[in-house]
């Protein structure tokens, strides 16, 4: 009997051991999940800081570049050529991270499946890649041209309206789910644009700059919606290849435009020695970093945190403009900035946010109902105990 009890524990002890083991497994799983989420949040903070610094830094550096080099289209063309580095950088990451390493040719052919069964043919290049190359160039050119007209704070905050334009176009073209909160956010964005125009008194100089930024945000929204409509969703390698293809289109078909602008003296500079190559390369590197974090940062953190980096660039540009330019932060401009920022944050809410809020409210109601009966039970159970204790003393 002693030997049997030593070898096989009693049923109650076995249940306790099983419960302890199960609890240990649950605790381990919870610990792993919490550590994973903590790492993701830490990476998210790093990505947010990278997005904010690269976006605000590129905007400020572009403003500084135009003081010596007044050629926004040439700067757009020069920076777009750096997109060619997307696929080589992605392949380096694939070599270091992936267990099954492929040759560059094999990886290229696998990513070309994104364009169709025949891969990247000449027809596919002109029908699927060329329109996006035009939209990419227009988005960046209108943004840079607006920096010449108005301050960087207004440019950065107005460009945040592109998320509202994406929702409106997705709702109309892609038949996405209707959300009242996002309609309110779109109204906030439009109201902010009007108030931003009113902040400078509807001067022609500021109106043109605001119109250029709104046009840039519209081109960016059209780019995103058409990409989802025509090409769908892309993996990391496919997105890297697509952006490199846009650089090839830029070199082959857009190079003639800066040349024409130079000889017609629309964008003219006296000699190549005058060109601030450090500013041009710095702007291109910052813009490339911003696009890399925007497209591939989702692999290590949450998409919402990445979008927050764009919003945080607004106060950074505001602080820089306060010390470097003669910007006037009157009440109308501040209200416009707050309204557009609030609209941007409302657009970051997930589609099922209302369901989560209802579940949270119902849980709170259930907890309140459970706490009230428990408190009443303690009071009611305490009275009989006192009566039971007092009766024997009276009989004695």
Automatic annotation (TrEMBL):
Biased composition (Basic residues): 386-396
Protein name according to UniProt: Solute carrier family 35 member F3
Superkingdom of the organism of origin: Eukaryota
Pfam family, one: EamA
Chain segments annotated as transmembrane: 41-62, 82-99, 120-143, 155-174, 181-199, 205-227, 239-263, 300-320, 332-349
GO terms for cellular component: membrane
Coiled coil: none
Chain ranges of the EamA domain: 43-197
Gene Ontology BP terms: thiamine transport
Disordered: annotated segments: 374-396
Entry keyword set: Membrane, Transmembrane, Transmembrane helix
InterPro entries cross-referenced by the UniProt entry: EamA_dom, EmrE-like, Solute_c_fam_35_mem_F3/F4
């Amino acid at each position: 009997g002693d030997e049997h009890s030593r070898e096989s524990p009693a049923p109650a002890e076995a249940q306790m051991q099983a419960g302890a083991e199960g609890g240990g497994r649950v605790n381990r799983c919870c610990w792993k999940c919490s550590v994973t989420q903590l790492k993701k949040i830490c990476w998210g903070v790093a990505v947010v800081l990278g997005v904010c610094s690269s976006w605000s830094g590129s905007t400020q550096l572009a403003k500084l570049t135009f003081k010596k080099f007044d050629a926004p289209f040439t700067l757009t063309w020069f920076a777009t050529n750096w997109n060619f580095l997307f696929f080589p950088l992605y392949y380096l990451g694939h070599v270091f991270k992936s267990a099954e390493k492929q040759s560059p040719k094999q990886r290229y052919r696998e990513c070309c499946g994104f364009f169709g069964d025949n891969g990247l043919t000449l027809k596919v290049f002109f029908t699927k890649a060329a329109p996006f190359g035009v939209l990419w160039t227009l988005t960046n050119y209108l943004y840079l041209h607006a920096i010449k007209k108005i301050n960087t704070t207004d440019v950065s905050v107005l460009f945040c309206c592109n998320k509202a334009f994406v929702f409106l176009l997705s709702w109309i073209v892609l038949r996405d789910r209707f959300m009242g909160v996002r309609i309110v956010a779109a109204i906030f964005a439009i109201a902010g644009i009007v108030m931003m125009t009113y902040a400078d008194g509807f001067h022609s100089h500021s109106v043109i700059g605001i119109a250029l930024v709104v046009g840039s945000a519209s081109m960016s929204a059209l780019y995103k919606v058409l990409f989802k409509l025509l090409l769908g969703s892309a993996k990391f390698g496919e997105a890297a290849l697509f952006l490199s293809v846009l650089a090839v289109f830029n070199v082959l078909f857009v190079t003639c435009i800066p040349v024409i602008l130079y000889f017609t003296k629309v964008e003219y500079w006296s000699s190549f020695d005058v060109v601030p190559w450090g500013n041009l390369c710095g702007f291109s590197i910052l813009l490339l970093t911003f696009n890399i974090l925007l497209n591939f940062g989702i692999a290590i953190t949450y998409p919402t945190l990445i979008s927050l980096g764009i919003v945080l660039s607004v106060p950074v540009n505001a602080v820089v403009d306060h010390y470097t330019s003669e910007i006037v932060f009157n009440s109308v401009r501040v209200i416009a900035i707050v309204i557009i920022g609030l609209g941007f944050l409302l657009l970051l809410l997930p589609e099922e946010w209302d369901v989560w809020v209802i579940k949270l409210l119902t849980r709170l109601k259930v907890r309140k109902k459970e706490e009230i009966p428990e408190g009443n039970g303690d009071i009611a159970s305490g009275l009989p105990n006192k009566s039971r204790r007092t009766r024997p003393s009276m009989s004695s």
